[in-house]
Design a protein that fits this description.
heterodimer; A: Rossmann fold; four-stranded antiparallel beta sheet; B: mainly alpha; 11 helices; about 75% helix; MetI-like_sf (chain B); transmembrane helix (chain B); ABC transporter permease (chain B)
Chain lengths: ~280, ~280
């Protein structure tokens, strides 16, 4: 097999349950957030993970980021299981894989300037000098369309859209190849939403990023994703190309999600053109 | 006040904006100076009893601005010397218990599971006893003396402060910046003390500052029952309690002046706490 044939991220029979631990007097009831999920994400593609809240999509994102350990099953990155990484491999993985959060308001520590927070992993993990790190920070801020002087600002001095851009800059600074986008635009208003999506798209073209796009509805998904998995109550009910999902939804959950989009007949072309329109605003 | 100019000017700016804080800080600085220069400032020694004819002299009597107590000692002089023990017994135990609680609370909140639960259950055992009673028991075991009372105060305060840090830490843990810092490979200790600590510090500071005032009173109570500062020593709490013998006999000022001193210092500490919180808050700049 050549390198291109191995999916970048392969999730294999992943299970995550919360609770179920025996305490002194009782056994708490366990909740299965993710039940036996398998999926694979290819290099350079944008994979959409869609489902209503509580369907386990964010939990999968967190487990891929290794912010949480799975109860069972495994996650392979580039063919290697991430739970068996050595310390050095883990350090490497931490810079290869980054996450962008939904709530930009709490994604930065309110008590330190943005620039310092973006520079920290460079200085600490990659042993950059203070000056070299700040130079890199300015470069990344520029890439996401923020001026240099934003580095000295505190998170509360930025607008939601600017903070989300800063969040993207923080992810970029380590030169990742895979980004988990955890509802990156659902907290933003429409015009800012379009700007952030087109920024993400341009960055993907430039750096050949692979994206896992997590969202709770199908808004923007047809436009942004190559393939889409629909989740319901911890299970994947349908995986297909974005086109097929829109043209021929198989599962009733998918149909329901499609029905909630604000278009008249839900046809792909119309949604696409609408998305392009939003995008051309900026 | 501060050698670094930018920081100094920042301090001055907030100082100028917040008049109450300015007053409180001035009180604390003056009290500290009085404690240091007590030997020069005080008209009499703390225990030098004037002749017995001067017992319970009214305030304003020549040579005794605040009057004298039932042993003929000058109250003003005793209040001046009393700043030493009062400042010590209010600041030292609170600072020590705040530092210990900060570490325990963050660790318990960060590792919730087994470590956090065992730590917090131990704290809960302390909650079962009224804190003054617990302080009495500890001070009684350790023996009388200012230092032992301070140790008792540290032990008594830790559960309350740890509880505050613990709840705040759990709240901060749910915010995404903590996850973000872990996502780029920040170590556990750094996440706890670099990311979380600055965000739980303000509420602990405000609480600690309030406790400084309360602690003076509690230590006074312990001194009164013979466990804290030992009698001839000048201490505000002790003076206030000793004055109760003559309180109802037409000499309330023996209690009044040290009591006022405690209230003023307690007020100063609580404004200091609020001011420090504002100073640490980036949204206030």
């Amino acid at each position: 097999m050549t390198k291109a044939d191995v999916p970048l991220v392969k999730v294999d029979h992943l299970i995550k349950s919360f609770g179920g631990k025996r305490s002194l007097f009782s056994k708490s009831k366990s909740i299965h957030a993710v039940k036996d999920v398998s999926l694979s994400i290819n290099r350079g593609e944008t994979f959409g993970l869609i489902g209503e809240s509580g369907s386990g999509k964010t939990t999968i994102g967190r487990m891929i980021m290794k912010l949480m350990d799975p109860t069972d099953g495994q996650i392979l990155y580039d063919g290697k299981s991430i739970s068996h990484f050595s310390k050095k491999e883990m350090k490497d993985y931490r810079s290869k894989v980054q996450i962008i959060f939904q709530d930009s308001g709490s994604a930065f520590n309110p008590r330190r300037p943005i620039g310092k927070q973006i520079a920290y992993p460079l200085i600490k993990n990659k042993k950059y000098s203070q000056d070299a790190a700040m130079k890199e920070v300015y470069h990344c801020l520029e890439m996401v369309g923020l001026r240099k002087d934003f580095a000295n600002r505190y998170p509360h001095q930025l607008s939601g859209g600017q903070r989300q851009r800063a969040g993207i800059a923080r992810a970029l600074v380590l030169h990742p190849e895979f980004l988990v986008l955890d509802e990156p635009v659902s907290a933003l208003d429409v015009s800012v939403k379009a700007q952030i999506v087109s920024l993400l798209e341009n960055l993907q073209k430039e750096f050949n990023f692979t994206y896992l796009f997590i969202a709770h509805n199908l808004d923007l998904v047809a436009y942004f994703c190559d393939r889409v998995a629909v989740m319901y109550k911890g299970e994947i009910v349908e995986v297909n190309t974005a086109q097929q999902i829109f043209r021929h939804p198989q599962n009733k959950v998918t149909k329901k999600l499609l029905g909630s989009i604000l278009t008249l007949d839900g046809s792909l072309n119309e949604i696409k053109s609408e998305a392009y329109e939003i995008n051309s605003i900026n | 006040m501060n050698t670094e100019l930018s920081w100094g000017s920042k301090v001055m700016r907030i100082f100028g904006k917040d008049k109450t804080a300015a007053l409180g800080i001035t009180i604390i600085i003056v009290t500290a100076l009085v404690a240091i220069f007590a030997d020069w400032l005080s008209p009499y020694g703390p225990n030098s009893a004037a002749d017995t004819a001067q017992r319970l002299a009214m305030p304003g009597t020549a040579g005794h601005l605040f009057g004298t107590d039932d042993q003929g000692r000058d109250i003003l002089s005793r209040i001046i010397y009393g700043t030493r023990t009062s400042l010590f017994s209010s600041i030292v135990p609170v600072v020590i218990s705040a530092v210990v609680s900060m570490c325990l609370g963050i660790i318990a909140g960060f590792f919730q599971g087994r470590i956090g639960n065992s730590l917090m259950r131990i704290m809960d055992v302390f909650f079962a006893f009224p804190s003054v009673l617990l302080a009495i028991a500890i001070a009684a075991i350790l023996g009388p003396g200012l230092l032992n009372v301070c140790i008792a105060m540290v032990i008594v305060r830790i559960p309350y402060m740890t509880r505050i840090v613990y709840t705040d830490t759990i709240q901060e843990m749910q915010k995404e910046y903590v996850e973000a810092s872990r996502a780029y490979g920040m170590g556990r200790a750094a996440v706890m003390f670099r990311e979380i600590m600055p965000n739980v510090l303000p509420s602990l500071i405000v609480y600690s500052a309030t406790l400084c005032g309360v602690t003076i009173v509690t230590v006074a109570g312990l001194s009164f029952i013979g466990l804290g500062v030992q009698p001839p020593t000048a201490d505000w709490g002790l003076m206030a309690s000793e004055g109760q013998n003559v309180l109802m006999q037409g000499d309330p000022y023996v209690t009044l002046f040290p009591g006022l001193a405690i209230i003023i210092l307690a007020f100063a500490f609580s404004t200091l706490g609020d001011w420090l919180r504002d100073l640490l808050d980036p949204t206030q700049k």
